[in-house]
Amino acid sequence: MPEASGSVSRALRTAPPDQLAETADAVLRQTLGAARAEVFVADYRASGLWPVLDPDVPDGGPLPAHTVAQRCFSSQEPVLDIVEDGRCRAYLPLSVWGERLGVLMVDLPGDPDAATVEAVRDAAGELAVAIRAADRETDRYRRARRRERLSMAAEMQWDLLPGRSVRLGDALLAGQLEPAYTVGGDHFDWSVDGDRLTLTVLNGTGSGLAASMLTSMTVNAMRNARRSGGSLVEQAELASDTIFYQHRGSRHVATLLLELDSRRGVMRAVDAGSPQLLRLRGGRVTPIALEQQLPLGMFAETRYDVQEFTLEPGDRLFVVSDGVYAAAPDEQEPYGVRAMARAMRSTRLQPATEAVGTVMRELHAYHADADLRDDAVVVCLDWRGSSRSDDVTGQ
């Protein structure tokens, strides 16, 4: 069956960027005798899977959380479902470099053998790469992801993200922004380079478009320094100077800059009045104390120092903004006093990509499912410390 994935790959390379789902469907029908193939993408909250083909038809709603497709999306493993007439619906994860995009469903004749399952899994991998690349060339997949209109600020924030998760060797990183459709200033950014995973988490100030523009300027200043070979300190200092000379100290951004050596588990950090950093180890959640330095942009020519700490195999780090740990709806104690740690402990058996959703759902429940009063960002970083792969691989 290798010809199936090869045919999909060749067809996708020449297909228009907005026609990838139709192209995969046509090739899988021809090469595997499939009755149909459907592409489902995760929405901005990762709360449901939505069809790319005919998303506006009356029954084109989300796939509920208990469905086979959702099990595939959560486990990132193929799931086979034998239906009444003896056909098999194969559900394959659409993932690339650790980022979960959605699920491919292929309706196959009979119970497929291992070679067929592997062929459709390879085809799903090719399709995921194509959708990731096409996302900048067409709005189709983003339209399928959104369940309501994004605010202008949120549009800018989501467009600024490099993705929602990534894997590098022993490390898996995932993040989530809320409220997904109106988020303003809170943000995260990452980059992979060799054995190094660089992560920044920003606790943006203000609200709406002004907050989003400040975050965008901050992220792009740090990217400019990083892409020019600058260290964490140089990234922080360039961003701080850029913000200060634009706003003269009236605006600033609390930021945590991290750089992980994914082989050795050594973390370098610059804490610029940062979001909270916590570690889950052996079922216990503890804050990691760093020397807190001035937020970016508060004063001219601010200089920063870097610190180091070491991870142990199996460690999980959470970074949360004050919209998470300081949330105190209806005059309750802040979410971060006890409830947040309980939510984090409950994620022990989940991958980082699921853990961020768990913490966010618990935060929404803490607010009694009312709208969040502040932007919130949760980032989860796992370091297994077991393999020695140099590759960035899908989950």
UniProtKB/TrEMBL annotation:
Pfam families: SpoIIE. Residues 168-383 form the PPM-type phosphatase domain. InterPro entries: Bact_Sigma-Reg, GAF-like_dom_sf, PPM-type-like_dom_sf, PPM-type_phosphatase-like_dom. This is Serine phosphatase RsbU, regulator of sigma subunit. PANTHER family: STAGE II SPORULATION PROTEIN E, STAGE II SPORULATION PROTEIN E-RELATED. GO terms for molecular function: phosphatase activity. SUPFAM superfamilies: GAF domain-like (SSF55781), PP2C-like (SSF81606). Keywords: Hydrolase.
